[in-house]
Amino acid sequence: SRFRQALAGFRVLQVTTGTRFVADLSSLAPDGEIVSIGTLSGEPLPAWLHIDLVAMRISGTPPVGAPAVELRIRVKGRDGAVQTVNLVVNPEQPRQITRNEAANAAD
Questions:
Q1: What is the Cα–Cα distance from 71 to 11, expressed in whole angstroms?
Q2: Residue 17 C-beta-side C-alpha neighbours within 13 Å
Q3: CB-count burial class (<10 Å; 0-12, 13-18, 19+) for 7
Q4: Position 47 pLDDT exceeds 60
Q5: pTM of the full predicted structure?
Q6: Percentage of residues in the chain with pLDDT exceeding 70?
Q7: Parallel/antiparallel/unpaired status of strands 82-92 and 69-76
Q8: Residue 38, class by beta-carbon neighbours within 10 Å (0-12 exposed, 13-18 middle, 19+ buried)?
Q9: Mean pLDDT, all residues of the chain
Q10: Please, what is the Cα angle at 30 between 25 and 32, to 5 degrees?
Q11: pLDDT tens figures, 16-34
Q12: How far is CA 79 from CA 28, 32, 35, 76, in A?
């Protein structure tokens, strides 16, 4: 799974700024469906983040400097019970190559 469990019950999805990602969320609802996805704060989703409830996917290309987005995902099981899963989409800045590393690679 691309998700790792974090503190306080949040799962974390690491993504890289400037790089498109597609994350399959079906493992969060193996026997049911995703009912809704929104931000934990109730704020609108950032423009770069796209939700597909039917396919159970999120995707996007976070811009450089994009902050982490805390999502609340509501999942309904086969028994009709609804549970909430918290997920943080955490954009990381691409690593810059130093001059030393570039020079060593050229050797």
A1: 10
A2: 13
A3: exposed
A4: yes
A5: 0.77
A6: 79
A7: antiparallel
A8: middle
A9: 86
A10: 100
A11: 999 999 999 998 888 899 9
A12: 15, 8, 14, 8
68: number of CA atoms within 13 Å, CB side? 14
3-state secondary structure the chain: CCCEECHHHEEEEEEECCCCEEEECHHHCCCCEEEEEEECCCCCCCCCEEEECCCCEEEECCCCCCCCEEEEEEEECCCCCEEEEEEEEEEECCCCCCHHHHHHHHC
Q: Which of 54, 3, 59 has the alpha carbon at shortest distance from 33?
A: 54
